[in-house]
Amino acid sequence: MTTIQTNSSKKWNIGLWVAQVALAAMFAMAGFMKLTSSPADMAAMGMLWAENAPVALIKFIGLAEVLGAIGVILPAATRIKPDLTKLAALGLATIMVLASGVHIFRGEFEVLPVNFVLFALAALVIWGRNRKAPIAPRT
What we know:
Blueprint: H1 2-36, H2 39-44, H3 55-71, H4 74-78, H5 83-106, H6 112-131
């Protein structure tokens, strides 16, 4: 019976790492783009919401996304304060809820599936690292 639990825990751990890496990759790319692109460039890439958004808000969102990407990987990988991984995932989930609200308000419903998938991945990481495959801190 112990072997089954160990195998199950290993599978959960691998699956959660895949989710964490996917979240980190998506948010690192999106955040870096917001930090380095002008609102006009972002609008040209299809992010029409950036046209009328304050530059400081765009940069803040970009910084939050990059820090969330780092936070969803680094604490778990180093096992230094691994609970910060769950908090980073919570922050990314919050960004997706807020982004969904903006897109609904603007009538940009075609973007909502991406927001939902990223929210679901973040929620999976929070739940999985709490219940299925927690990461123990270094001793």
